[in-house]
Structures are given as C-alpha cells and as structure tokens.
Amino acid sequence: MNELFIQAAQKKYRFPYKGQITVEDLFDLNMEQLNTIFQSLNKEVKDADTVSLLEVKSDEDKDLENKIEIVKYVFNVKLAQKEAISKQKEIADEKQKIMAIIEDKENAALKDLTVEELKAKLDELK
User: Fold this and answer.
1) What is the spatial distance between Cα 114 and Cα 106, in angstroms, rounded to a whole number?
2) Distance (Å, whole) CA 73 – CA 2
3) Do residues 74 and 27 make contact, with C-beta atoms less than 8 angstroms apart?
C-alpha cells in the first residue's frame, strides 16, 4: 500500500470531487463522499471497458485502478475509525451503567444500617 501512495504522490493523482482533489483531501471526506468518488471512478472504468484480451493495459488504466484502490483504502480506514469510536462509546456506556448500579447498591447498603451504625460512619468521616 505504501508504494501505491508513493506512486500517487509522484504522479500527482487527482480525484473527481467538486473539481479535482488530492490524495490528502480524501481523508477529509466522509464515507458517503468517498463512495461518490468510488462510483465516479468505476464509471470511468466501465466507460473504457471496450478492452480486448489482446490489448495491454495503458498507464491511464493502471492509474485509474490505483485511484480506486486508494479510495477503497481510505474508505476502509474511515470505516475502522467509525467502528472503533462506536466500540469506545459502548464501553463508556457500559461503565456508566455499572457505576450507577454500584452507587445504587452502596446506597441500599447504607439504608440497611441502623441509626447507631450510620452515626458511627458519620463520625468516622469527620
């Protein structure tokens, strides 16, 4: 994958989105916008699909395939980030629930103490 990004930088790849954008700009887009670029690039491939088995792929065809691979890579990075954020949120929510239950149980335990035991605990806190 590193070689692909090096090649993209050397050849100054541009992607069709509101004009032309660079590889770095892809990382600023959301998944829907990346999908739009992916669809546009795939349309270019299908438009050039009059290739026969006897023809050798041109540099333009290879560049187009590389651009598609880069967009797919950036999309998958965004997807992984989204899943990681979702997982972190789930963990944080679960921690909150557990802490609330612990607090409820501690309060319930205090409610079961006698007045004398509560006064003794209060004196310990002074």
Assistant:
1) 15
2) 11
3) yes
Q: What proportion of the chain, given as a percentage, has pLDDT over 90?
A: 66
Reported as half-sphere exposure (CB side, CA atoms, 13 A), residue 115 has a value of 0
Helix, coil or strand: residue 51: coil
- Predicted TM-score (pTM) of the model is 0.71
Specify the DSSP class assigned to residue 16: E
Question: Cα angle at 55 between 51 and 57, to 5 degrees?
Answer: 80
Task: Look up residue 103 and give its two tokens.
Answer: 């607090």
Give the model's pLDDT for residue 55. 63
Which amino acid, one-letter code, is at 118? Answer: L
Alpha helices (H) in the chain, listed in sequence order: 2-11, 23-26, 31-47, 59-111, 115-125
Burial class, 26, CB count within 10 angstroms (exposed 0-12 / middle 13-18 / buried 19+): buried
User: What average pLDDT does the segment 84-107 reach?
Assistant: 95
Average pLDDT, the chain: 89
Tell me 21's DSSP state: E
